[in-house]
Design brief:
The complex is a heterotrimer of chains A (426), B (323) and C (328). Chain A is built from 16 helices and 8 strands. With 426 residues, chain A is of the alpha/beta class. In chain A, the strands form 2 sheets. A 4-stranded parallel beta sheet of chain A has the order 2-1-3-4, sandwiched between helices. Chain A has a 4-stranded parallel beta sheet with strand order 6-5-7-8, with helices on both faces. Chain A is globular and about 65 Å long. In chain C, 52% of the residues lie in helices and 5% in strands. In chain C, helix 3 packs antiparallel against helix 5. The chains are: A alpha/beta (426), B mainly beta (323), C mainly alpha (328).
Chain lengths: 426, 323, 328
């Protein structure tokens, strides 16, 4: 919501505690590590402007908020609107949102609700005309009514709880089609082959850029640190699509140059970590930053604020609307490794494949306190990784900075044990 | 007396009898007292298979057309010459084939065999030379169809003075059948050269006949009639019937032989063939296209309405109320 | 070497397939005019009724003819001829496996052209539900069984000789392929006997259904093809294989979306590496549209010849995004 003129007595944003939180983190990200890539300047700049200065983010057309990666962005772009991901990582909003939700609940949902409730939210994206809320985990599902009560227009995008059966897949295709209808009513435009094709071309370009970055992170020793990677993907939430894509393409070019020069962003023997679980969203990059400050490097991740958001690509056989929309729907449902589904075989396979491809030494599994689904999956993932001999560290945390000390100790111990193992194995 | 003795007696008697001069002679593929299924049918006509080799039976008949010509009980004087596919000539002697006079010869090669009977007689000062020709075809699909083209062309013989040569139809191959309504053309050759103005008569199986004169190129054409009108459910696609083509030519050759002297010579050549129902008789484009178009439009319309209907409601799960 | 590999993996499969299909179509439908004769054991619908132009004969025609021989002949020395024909068929088949269906079969090519027409008209296609797919998938085995049993019945004098080629009577290839050389005589109903009447009528109905079906569904007829069933029974030792590395699969379903035959296993099966199902026509569209490196590949005698690559996928999808005026 926009700044209320009655709140003239409130301190300027950039001096607020919230801005401080963001600034502190950005300083750590930039200054605690030497030799950040030139191209990352764009992202550091962007975050400083938006999170520390409270600068509004410009966008085109109608603004449609989404609360989950399951909402098909291409459809929103095709109607001439702009999607913005509302998932929030700020402790400040977490505390505000705690009024709405029980004590032991997901900090992400609390923060999102808090940001929607707040008068001047950051990132400042201006008026949201519609919020698309996929019914994924039960906390998000219940939040739908609360968001509606705050005065927003909410569209419940019905996601099935299982993805194997034909009924579930058809149900999801129908949900997506219904979303298309809602968007048509909202924007007053029609979905045509041309505009959907163009929208898909734009996101495909972004996905391609991401994939290149993803592949570059396979390099040993690492060319690029996880803290920057998370920053890059977090920028995707609110930044202009084409600008973001261009910035990532520049980053890729620089990394490829680094690769040729044999640059090392981390130590050669730095433990390579696969980060999985509840999504780290700026400014809650607590855990990845701790890992890298302790000497590890996050080379890959399986989270919905990074890899899962951009990795999968859509294939279309016939460029006719019916095939394109169903193809999009399939891409958002079928490969999804979100723990909200009944089975997690796909997630297990994905983790094992990432571990193999990226030569991973250990896995850090972050679960937000109160995230029932990630906590419940811990068991099966631990078994699968143990069977492959990959060590895993399970961390239950939330947005508050109070447990940093304890976490830091645990992470250092974990990385140490990995180094010992590798040393013994040699 | 036993049958066999009777037959031998008959044959011996017939040799001593003078040969019939008045009635034309022609070869027929049809068995005397023909019963269906008594010989195996292959492409080209009925054949008999002995130890894997196709054999042809041809019977000599005397008379104008298939409807009234009779089979011969005994042998007839004259030369029987077989020209095989390669062009080699062989003399055959006829004999008793399934009860009547005929020839039986092996057809080892694929293609057309030419069989000629040349029979001479003199009566009333006219020497009559009967030339009965048959052009049986041997083909088995097992031999393939790559060799057909070069074997299609008809042969002419220099051993016969008057010859009828059946002209091939357009694109004819070993599987072609002369059907009702098709035009059969015949070339009449006198001493190797086309004969214009000769009288040619076609006799069909049920007694219909037609006479034309050969044109300047020596060709006479006939359109085959349809004379097979069975009840609908007894219709046979391959119902084979004989036809005979007669050509005659008289010259002023005079002379004398053992049989007497003559002032004129009359050549009478015959050629037999088979004709069948044409595909036009039992194949309908109209019904075929009607059915095809019906299936196409029905399916198209059904899909269209199905798609329209699906926009209204889902395909529901229904429970069977019966216990 | 790597450059050649990359070039092949990034090929525009649609164009490659179109050209190859066109080549084989001309070869099999008009080859007779150029004295091409590939024999009578071809594992594809090179219709034998196309007298003038055929470049070879579909094996099903001589198979039915041979099986219709009288039993005394069939189970005697003549049976060796049947075995020989079958052996040649199997040898031809082993080379391309079901690639004969996806790249060579003229009837398949015709269906692909009809599909092209439909996309140009902007009409969407239909998909089967899983239940329909499972049930309809059995029809081709039924047709294969009938195709073998009916001629055997004729040989044993149990059935009229008119039904000697029961599948050819109902196959749309008999009606459609000779049309390309100007022979429309197969479009007739044969009234000479009751059997021929029924069979040719069925044939014309199937032809009408073929055109409508192929318009609304991609490769409609291939789903019911007994040649496909026969292929599948022999497909284990064939040289061209479709392999899947389940560990790399994200189950994104892209391959399932583009599959003409709507085979779900290609996307959902992650344990079994031999992924080719009985309906597969080996068009390799799945391989071309898989974004995961090495998840799907086509191998020839064990050597991978076409593999799914990230770069290949991106190249093809980018081209698709750009072809705005040609919705294919």
């Amino acid at each position: 919501m926009n700044t209320n003129p009655n709140e003239a007595t409130a301190p300027a944003y950039n001096r607020s505690r919230q801005a401080r939180e963001a600034e502190t983190l950005l300083d750590r990200i930039q200054d605690d590590f030497p030799d950040n890539p030139e191209a990352m300047r764009y992202f550091y700049d962007l975050f400083r402007r938006v999170y520390c200065q409270g600068e509004p983010v410009k966008h085109e057309g109608t603004l449609v908020g989404t609360t989950c990666i399951h909402a098909p962005e291409e459809l929103i772009y095709a109607f001439g609107a702009t999607p913005v991901r509302l998932c929030n990582g700020s402790y400040h909003y977490d505390q505000i949102g705690a009024d709405f939700m029980p004590a032991k609940s997901c900090p992400l949902v609390k923060a999102t609700l808090g940001s929607l409730h707040a008068k001047a939210a950051v990132p400042n994206t201006q008026a949201l005309e519609l919020i698309v809320n996929p019914t994924t985990c039960d906390q998000k599902t219940k939040a739908s009514a609360m968001i509606g009560a705050m005065g927003y227009q909410v569209h419940d995008l019905e996601l099935p709880p299982a993805k194997e059966s034909e009924e579930a897949r058809l149900y999801w295709q129908r949900s997506v089609r219904r979303l298309a209808l809602r968007l048509r009513e909202l924007t007053g435009r029609k979905l045509t082959r041309k505009n959907l094709q163009q929208a898909m071309a734009r996101t495909a370009r972004a996905q391609t850029a991401f994939r290149t970055l993803h592949q570059l992170r396979k390099n040993a020793p690492a060319l690029f640190l996880g803290k920057d990677a998370f920053l890059v993907t977090n920028a995707y939430f609110f930044d202009d699509l084409d600008r973001w894509t261009a910035a990532v393409e520049q980053l890729n070019a620089e990394l490829q140059l680094r690769q040729m020069e044999g640059f090392q962003a981390a130590q050669k023997r730095a433990p390579r970590i696969l980060f999985t679980g509840s999504p780290p969203i700026f400014p809650n990059l607590k855990l990845p930053l701790l890992i890298e400050e302790a000497g590890g490097v996050v080379v890959a991740d399986e989270t919905c604020s990074a890899n899962r958001m951009l990795y999968d690509m859509t294939a279309v056989d016939e460029w006719l609307l019916n095939d394109m929309v169903d193809g999009l729907a399939d891409r958002y449902l079928k490969p999804c490794t979100c723990p909200i589904f009944t089975r997690n075989d796909d997630r297990q396979r994905r983790l094992l494949q990432l571990a193999a491809d990226f030569n991973v030494d250990g896995v850090v599994y972050q679960a937000f306190a109160g995230c029932q689904v990630y906590e419940m999956e811990y068991r099966s993932i631990a078994d699968v990784l143990a069977a492959q001999g990959i060590p895993m560290l399970y961390v239950e945390t939330d947005y508050s900075p109070d447990d940093m000390g304890q976490l830091s100790t645990r992470i250092e111990a974990f990385l140490e044990s990995i180094k010992t193992r590798k040393r013994n194995a040699r | 007396m036993t049958n066999r003795t009777l037959l031998i007696l008959l044959f011996s008697m017939s040799i001593m009898r003078p040969s019939f001069a008045a009635d034309p002679l022609w070869w027929s593929e049809t068995m005397p007292h023909a019963e269906h299924g008594s010989s195996q049918h292959s492409h080209g006509g009925p054949v008999e298979i002995r130890r894997g080799v196709y054999h042809k039976n041809l019977w000599l008949r005397s008379g104008a057309g298939p409807i009234d010509a009779r089979y011969l009980d005994g042998a007839i004087s004259g030369r029987i010459v077989l020209i095989d596919v390669r062009g080699e000539t062989k003399e055959l002697s006829g004999g008793n084939v399934h009860g009547s006079f005929g020839v039986n010869f092996a057809m080892p090669d694929e293609g057309f065999y030419n069989l000629h009977l040349i029979n001479e007689s003199i009566s009333d000062g006219i020497r009559q030379i009967n030339i009965a020709k048959s052009e049986p075809l041997k083909h088995s699909c097992r031999e393939g169809h790559d060799h057909v083209r070069p074997l299609m062309a008809p042969k002419q013989s220099d051993q016969v003075p008057l010859e009828i040569v059946r002209q091939r139809m357009a694109e004819e191959n070993f599987h072609s059948l002369l059907g009702y309504g098709d035009t059969a053309s015949f070339l009449v050759l006198y001493q190797g050269a086309p004969l214009a103005g000769a009288e040619v008569t076609l006799h069909t199986a049920r007694g219909w006949r037609n006479s034309v004169r050969t044109d300047a190129q020596g060709i006479a054409s006939f359109m085959m009639i349809r004379d097979y009108y069975p009840p609908w459910h007894e219709f046979e696609r391959r119902h084979r019937q004989d036809y005979v083509v007669h050509a005659s030519h008289t010259t002023d050759d005079a002379g004398s032989t053992d049989g007497g002297s003559y002032t004129r010579t009359r050549y009478l050549a015959t050629l037999n063939g088979s004709y069948y129902p044409s595909t036009r008789d039992y194949r309908s484009y109209t019904y075929g296209l009607l059915l095809g178009v019906f299936a196409l439009t029905f399916t198209g319309v059904a899909v269209y309405f199905y798609r329209r209907r699906r926009q209204k409601r889902f395909h529901e799960v229904r429970f069977d109320e019966k216990n | 070497m790597k450059k050649i590999r990359d070039a092949i993996n990034g090929v525009d499969l649609r164009r490659f397939r179109f050209l190859l299909q066109l080549f084989f179509f001309v070869l099999l439908v008009y080859g007779g005019y150029f004295a091409v004769n590939l024999g009578q054991s071809l594992p594809t619908f090179a219709c034998g009724f196309n007298d003038a132009g055929r470049g070879g004969i579909c094996y099903l025609l001589p198979l039915q003819h041979q099986l219709a021989m009288s039993w005394s002949m069939l189970f005697g020395w003549a049976g060796l001829m049947v075995l020989q024909g079958f052996l040649f068929f199997a040898l031809w088949f082993f080379v391309l496996n079901k690639g004969w269906c996806g790249y060579v079969c003229p009837l398949g090519t015709i269906q692909d052209w009809i599909t092209s027409l439909r996309t140009r008209l902007g009409v969407r296609y239909s998909r089967y539900t899983e239940g329909q797919f499972r049930r309809l998938s059995l029809i081709k085995y039924l047709l294969l069984a009938l195709m073998i049993l009916i001629p055997l019945g004729i040989g044993g004098a149990l059935l009229p000789h008119d039904m000697g080629t029961p599948f050819c009577d109902i196959c749309p290839g008999r009606m459609v392929i000779p049309m390309f050389t100007g022979d429309f005589s197969q479009l007739t109903i044969d009234f000479s006997t009751k059997t021929t009447m029924v069979m040719t009528a069925l044939g014309m109905l199937v032809t009408g259904l073929f055109f409508a079906g192929a318009f609304f569904k991609k490769r409609f007829f291939c789903f019911f093809c007994p040649m496909s069933a026969l292929h599948y029974l022999l497909s284990k030792p064939a040289l061209l294989k479709l392999k899947k590395d389940g560990a790399k699969c994200t189950r994104c379903g892209d391959c399932y979306r583009v599959c003409d035959m709507e085979i779900r296993e290609i996307a959902d099966e992650v344990k079994e590496p031999r992924i080719m199902q009985d309906d597969c026509i080996m068009c390799l569209k799945c391989v071309a549209h898989c974004p995961e490196q090495g998840a799907l590949k086509a191998t020839f005698a064990g050597i991978p010849i076409f593999e799914s690559t990230e770069q290949g996928f991106i190249k093809r999808m980018t081209k698709g995004h750009q072809d705005e005026h040609k919705p294919q």
